Amino acid sequence: xxxxxxxxxxxxxxxxxxxxxxxxxxxxxxxxxxxxxxxxxxxxxxxxxxxxxxxxxxxxxxxxxxxxxxxxxxxxxxxxxxxxxxxxxxxxxxxxxxxxxxxxxxxxxxxxxxxxxxxxxxxxxxxxxxxxxxxxxxxxxxxxxxxxxxxxxxxxxxxxxxxxxxxxxxxxxxxxxxxxxxxxxxxxxxxxxxxxxxxxxxxxxxxxxxxxxxxxxxxxxxxxxxxxxxxxxxxxxxxxxxxxxxxxxxxxxxxxxxxxxxxxxxxxxxxxxxxxxxxxxxxxxxxxxxxxxxxxxx
Length: 298
What we know:
Elements: H1 3-14, E1 27-28, E2 63-69, E3 83-90, H2 109-115, H3 119-128, H4 136-146, H5 167-181, H6 185-191, H7 204-215, E4 220-224, E5 227-238, E6 245-249, H8 284-297
Antiparallel strand pairs: 1-6, 2-3, 2-5, 4-5, 5-6
């Protein structure tokens, strides 16, 4: 889907932009499950007084970061798309909590999604949410237990009493996928004349200006040395993670990329876009790489 078409869809499903603070465009990710939460109150991190109902107001992790990877060599995911890393609830001051409820460290995420009718989400994840070492299942389990369990609006007490075990995790993965689809980083750059290449480098300003012009907000870009390899899109949230409105905001910092000489390389070599369900093999290199960059800025 072209970037301009995608952004038009974002506006259409969100309702009127004027309905959101500061003329920001909200992204409505409503699905079949209804949280029964209003989206008429303040967005997370924008409230002037404490909010008691944390089932309908995301706190303390209301500074939400959607992270994507560009893994060029070895390549991961389609050659014309970035891939999902996760959706992380940072506190409003940029600090963050992790591993908030070990009792909900679900395993067999693929089975959980399948059993609860989210096969389409799983199919998408198998292509666009892939592990650096090909261990997709462990990657998904890590993202849920490390970050997903820290969302106040996904606490099991916020769901209907007859919800199946793990329903809040299913809602998390569905929301991450839906939000990722509204952020086609590859298309946004390509539409601005910036495509992966070995023939030239880019300045940070060229990259961020292109993304800001298309979306109205500036993301953070991270690099491994000179190589562009990650992006962070930031949001506040009105209502619940399940079906609330994600309000795009500027990144809290510029990321780790240098000001010039940034390489945006094409994906080359053998791809690992394959379904994996075993939980062997570590993820320290994958998650340490990106999270260390975040830690250094916060």
